[in-house]
Every structure is written in structure tokens, then in C-alpha cells.
Amino acid sequence: MSNVVELLEKLIKPKSLNLCGGGSDNFLRKEELYAALNVAVSKHAFGLNALLMTQFSDLSATNHVAKILLRHAEDQGISFHEIKVSIAVCTVAKIPLEVQVKKIKSLHKRYGPRSFRSRKLITTWKKRIESLERSGGHFHLIQKHRDDIKLEEKSLDSWAMKQAKTSTICPRCKGTGKASSKSCSSCDGLGRFSPSMREMKQEIISRGISESELGLTWYAEIINLMNIIHIAQGEVVQEMKLRYELESI
């Protein structure tokens, strides 16, 4: 529920939020928030969940959106509808496709906040190993540092994979689109990695669907599914704003 309240605070301007129920005209009253919420839930549950999915990465809302879209795609007779719905939902929710994960992971390992710490530790251990080897002996300590390096590399790899699977934000420019005052070359200045038509096709093929089975309308079907989500979001935003305006009269 806190996500919904924060969402309403974002959507309804220019007033700010007051959950204490104060009477100032400069604050939204709690009853106004929940009046808008009740209308949204009753009339536009799909759109509300779509908003929570895109604004807060809400897992429950994402599952709700996917479930409704799956039913729609199945009713429409869309072939391989589960894969197409998955791609549509991930793209709108800014969740990386599997084919994008490898590149994003490599960037996290190179530019992520954890990478700087790991590189410093590994460099320090390597220098100690070189020093110990020059002085002779110390085999146990040398092996310990080698094990430390392997453990740190494994830990960094695991961390980078986790990050790469949850967000499409470019690790190099941190979503700004700029690196060293220039357009970020890693994401082409976009700040994110939105899947291209080619990547979507690769995603489908990687799941065992041949190009001949794919047909000619697959991309249009995915775009249409994405549009359903976008339209639903727009409708619930308008409904919330309208309800707020009525409450404020």
C-alpha cells in the first residue's frame, strides 16, 4: 500500500502528501488519496498494476500484468504467446532480456561500484604474491592470496549477474547517457539498454523457436502487447487525476 500512496503523490500535482490528515489546503488529505485509489482499483486494476510495475518494480504487480496479458494473447490466438508476453512485459518494466544480460553483466564487472573495490583488492593481493615469490618461501601465504583472488572474482561475478538481471540502466553512465562529458558509448547515450528488434528475435530463438516458426507478425504482436500496457497506464493516471479534481472542488 505504501507504493500506491507514493505513486499517487507522484501523479497528483502540485500538492504534496500528508498522511496525518491535517487540514491545510497545501496537502492532500488521506481520504482524497484513497478515494482516487478505490476508483483506480475498481475500474482500472490492470492499469494500476502496470504503473506499480514500471514505477516501483513491484513483483506482484508485474505478475498480475503478465497474467492478464497471457489471457488476452491466448484469446487472440497469438502463437508462442508466453514468450511474446514475457518480452513485452520485460521491455515495458525495464527488465533485461536474457540475451542482454551478458553485456550488462560485463559492464557491471568493469564499471559497477563493486568492481572498483574488487580490482583494488585483487591488485593488492597480486602485488603481495609477487613480493613473496621474490623473497622465496611463504608458500602457504601465497596460496592463500591466490584463493582470495579466486573468491573475490567469483563474488564479483555473482554480484554482477544479480545486477544485470534486475535493471537495464547502463552501469557505465549510471543512466545519464554521458561518460566523461561525452555520450556514453556503452549505451549509445541512451542511459538504458532497451531491447532492439534483433535482440527480441534472438530472445525468442534462444527459447527454442525456429525462425521459420516465428512468422512475419511476431514483432507487431509484441508491440501491440506493449501498447496495451501503455494505454492502461494512461487511463488509470487520467482517472486518478479526474477523481482528485472532483474531490478538490
Description:
This protein has 249 residues and is mainly alpha-helical. It is built from eleven helices and four strands; from the N terminus they run αββαααααααββααα. The protein has helices at residues 2-11, 30-43, 45-56, 59-75, 81-93, 98-111, 113-135, 139-164, 197-206, 211-214, 218-248, and strands at 16-17, 27-28, 178-179, 182-183. The strands form two sheets. A two-stranded parallel sheet has the order 1-2. It has a two-stranded antiparallel ribbon with strand order 3-4. Helix 5 (81-93) crosses helix 11 and helix 6 packs across helix 8 (139-164). The protein is elongated. Mean pLDDT is 85; it is low at 12-28.
Overall strand count? 4
The parts where pLDDT drops under 50 for at least 5 residues are 12-28
Strand proportion, as a percent range, falls in under 5%
Mean pLDDT: 85
The gross shape turns out to be elongated
Helices and strands, in order, run as HEEHHHHHHHEEHHH
- Measured distance between first and last alpha carbons: 26 Å
Radius of gyration: 24 Å
**Could you estimate the helical fraction of the residues in percent?**
55-70%
How many structural domains?
Answer: 2
- Secondary structure tally, helices: 11
Structural class call reads mainly alpha
Q: How is the biggest beta sheet arranged?
A: 2 strands, parallel
Strand order in space, largest sheet: 1-2
Concise account of the structure shown:
The chain is mainly α and 249 residues long.
Descriptive key words:
single chain; 249 residues; mainly alpha; two-stranded parallel sheet; two-stranded antiparallel sheet; 4 strands; 70% helix; 3% strand; elongated
